[in-house]
Each structure stands twice: as C-alpha cells, then as structure tokens.
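Holo model, flavin-adenine dinucleotide. Inputs:
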Amino acid sequence: MQKDLFEAPDYYNIDDLLLEEHKLVRDAARQWVKRSVSPIIEEHAQKATFPKEILGGLAEIGAFGPYIPEKYGGAGLDHISYGLIMQEIERGDSGIRSTASVQSSLVMYPIFTYGNEAQRTKYLPKLASGELIGCFGLTEPNHGSNPSGMETKYKDMGDHYLLNGAKLWISNAPFADIAIVWAKNEEDRIHGLIVERGMEGFSTPTTHNKWSLRASATGELIFDNVKVPKENILLGKTGLGAPLGCLDSARFGIAWGAIGAAMDCYDTALRYAKERVQFGKPIAATQLQQKKLAEMVTEITKAQLLALRLGQLKNNDKATSAQISMAKRNNVDMALKIAREARQVLGAMGITGEFSIMRHMMNLESVITYEGTHDIHLLITGADITGFSAFQ
Ligand SMILES: Cc1cc2nc3c(=O)[nH]c(=O)nc-3n(C[C@H](O)[C@H](O)[C@H](O)COP(=O)(O)OP(=O)(O)OC[C@H]3O[C@@H](n4cnc5c(N)ncnc54)[C@H](O)[C@@H]3O)c2cc1C
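Output:
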C-alpha cells in the first residue's frame, strides 16, 4: 500500500469551532492511525484477519469508552471527542472503527448505563484497557431490522438463568471475551445478559466469505442451555429501548466515522488527480474530475457540520434518536457515494490494494446496512416528521 500522506480537508475552517481538547484527542488518534493502522491494514483486509496487535493502541488513544468516566477506566471525554476519535479510526478502516464502536457503545455503554456498581467495577476498567473485548448480540437469523421479534430466550431457574437461542452477524464475536446478549424472559420482556466465553453451551463460530469489513471479525453466538449467573443480568432498563439506547450511541459514532472514510477517499483522489497526467495535463485540470472533487468536498463539509451540531446536542443530552438516525443515514450514504466516485478518479489503480479507496467502498456496504439499514433510518425520519410509522 502507498505511504499514508493523508491531509484532512477542512474547507469551512470547522477546526475553529473545536476546543483545544478536541483537537488534541483528534490529532493523537490521527497520528496513531498513520503509525499503526495504515501500514498493516491492507494485508489484514486481503487476508480477512483482524489485527489484534492494535488493541492496546486503540485503548491508549481512548477509543474504548471515550465518554465513560475515568473512575471506571474510561477517558471521560465529551461526545464530540468520541466522534472525532471514530472519524480518525474509520479514516484508517471501518472494520477497526467497528471494533471500537462495539466495545464503547454496545458493551461499555450498557454496562455503565443499565448495570449495577458491581458490574461496572468488574468489567469496565478491563474493557477500557482492552484486556477484555466485548461483542453485542441483538440480530438473529430471523430478526434483523425487527429485533422485537427475537427468539432468544432465558428462563429463571432459581439460582441461575438458562439461555437458549442464536445471534448472527456479530462483530468481534469470534474473539470476544464477553457478549452483551439481548434475550426475552418468560413474560416476553427483553433484558441484557452478560455472557462470558467459557460458559458451557456458548460458542462463537466465525462468519466467512465477506467481501466487506474483511479486517473485522464477524461471527455467530450460539446458546445451548447456557447457565448464566444471576448477577450477570442488566436490570437498569428492560424492553427494546435498552438495546436501542446502545444503538443510538453507536450510530452517533458511525455518523462521524463515515466522514473519516470519505475524507480518506477524497484526499487520495485529489492527490492522484493532481499527479496523473493524461492528454498532456493533470486529470485534475479537467472539468469532469473537478466536478467530482468539488462535489466530494462539498458533501464532506455538509456532513462535518451535521456531525458537529449533533455532537453539541448530544453533549447537552438533547440529541433525539431520530436526529441520530438522520446523521447516520446521510453521512454513510455520502461516504459510499464519495468512495465510488473517488474510485473512478483513480481509473484502474482504484481497484487495487495500493490505495485505500476500494477497501473503504466495500466496507461502507456493511456500514450502510448495520446499526439500522439506510431504508430503516429513512422510515425513522418519516415516522418522526409525520407521526405515522410505516414499519408495519
Ligand atoms: C458486517 C456486519 C456486522 C454486524 N455487526 C452486528 C453486531 O455486532 N451486532 C448485531 O446485533 N448485529 C450486527 N449486524 C447486523 C445488522 O445490524 C443487520 O444486518 C441489520 O440490522 C439488517 O438486518 P438484516 O440483515 O437481517 O436485513 P433485513 O432486516 O432482512 O432487511 C432486508 C432489507 O429489507 C429492508 N426492510 C426491512 N424492513 C423493512 C420495512 N418495514 N420497510 C421497508 N424496508 C424494509 C431493509 O432496509 C433491507 O434493505 C452486522 C451486520 C453486518 C453486515
């Protein structure tokens, strides 16, 4: 792969709106990605392996629980910092950002928010340091966009819970130490359970043959009469709102992360267009390539402003689920379109692993589907503005 020469576009001087703390956190993550992700990511993506060697680095830049209080090992940062860290990691690769998102928003968040003090102190510091890695099991073979129909069940056996069922498409599953599993009790009420690797009847087969997020490990969670200790239930919130609260946090991070992938594609295409000469002049001097590049930077700028405003709302606890949906949908769609256009700017070179664009493009096909599909987020906005749900 080419040397990482990335320079971030900031066409509207959005840096002026950030605090010094934001810029410090962002720049540390940016340097770490250049140093530790860019040199190895292409090979891992080609081989479909997750680079476990970067887990310690992710912890060091505060990517595991950026907004979890320092008391529990988190970085104690605000949500804009969280977003900026996700942006920088996804600039490197969406699969690496997925691991950080899952750990922070889908594992640490529910333990912090719905767990008790014993659960927080037992798990959060080890998750923050990367000593433990977690995954989040909501999606099932028969229930993706509609998780309320989940079939995974747990039964109160007196001194423990008995868990049965299966989850599919679970990021980090093949190597996770713990899983936050959403299951229904006998009254059909949804709760989160902390399931630990090694519990009898719990297995995590790997999902193979992905063309997307190849540097992220995806798998299944199978529960065959798993005895879950009673102290492993998250009692702070019940019902579908509990996993959806986690998804709000993760989707917020994705809205920022996608900007990173888009910035990398734009920056790569701009540099290439200036250097590549055809018909006696750089292709950057042609109107058609300028149209592509000008539209890319316009869309990135709009997405940056959307994410920043969402971050301000989130910092004030005012960001609604529907607002987060809109930003996730818009920014991922924006990034995917930019990746496709940027790929064309590079001609044949765009399909190779010499450049990051094709990898971003393939990755974003997962990002536009997971954490709520592109269509489902549109329906969330539709329901919010009209008052009518078109889901059923
Ligand atoms: C790489 C990867 C990693 C993932 N990681 C995780 C993870 O860590 N944890 C986890 O729990 N899940 C994870 N997922 C699962 C992901 O969240 C689901 O794939 C997603 O929610 C969509 O579900 P589905 O694939 O079953 O699609 P379906 O729900 O079957 O949808 C298929 C199509 O129908 C559309 N559709 C569905 N309902 C409607 C409707 N009412 N009206 C109009 N259109 C509709 C959808 O928009 C979509 O286009 C991951 C997925 C991928 C690809």
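The pocket of flavin-adenine dinucleotide is lined by residues 102, 135-139, 144-145, 169-171, 213, 218, 366, 369-371, 373, 375-376, 391 (CB under 6 Å). The CA atoms of residues 109 and 120 lie 10 Å apart.
Archived with the compound record.
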